[in-house]
Write a structure and sequence with these properties.
It is found in: Cell membrane. By secondary structure, the chain is mostly helical. The protein is built from 2 helices and no strands. The radius of gyration is 27 Å and the shape is elongated.
């Protein structure tokens, strides 16, 4: 069926260009869909996180603040805060670390 079809060089480039454009348009549409879904899910989860934070703030009673021990390495502290932020999928401003205890 396709064996007897002959294309000129210009037609062959046109077919190749059409195929490439279809593939890249599909990839761009997938990228847009992923971005939109991420924004929607992030917005929903952000609302839930803020509602939980508000409930926790209302239940917590104010206590006297203990003196802060700044002897921990700042790079290690930044790594811990980043790991917690990634695990909770929330912004750093949405939680507070009260203490860090090293297990031996």
């Amino acid at each position: 069926m396709l064996g007897d079809v002959s294309l000129t060089l210009g037609q062959a480039f046109g077919v190749a260009l059409t195929g490439l454009s279809v593939v890249f348009l599909a990839l761009i549409s997938l990228l847009i869909a992923i971005v939109v879904i991420t924004k929607i899910v992030g917005g929903i989860q952000g609302k839930e996180d803020s509602a939980k934070a508000n409930q926790g703030a209302q239940k917590a009673s104010p206590k006297a603040a203990k003196p802060v021990d700044n002897s921990m390495d700042p790079a290690l502290l930044a790594a811990i805060v980043g790991a917690i932020s990634m695990e909770e999928r929330s912004r750093v401003e949405s939680f507070r670390i009260v203490s860090i205890n090293e297990k031996k």
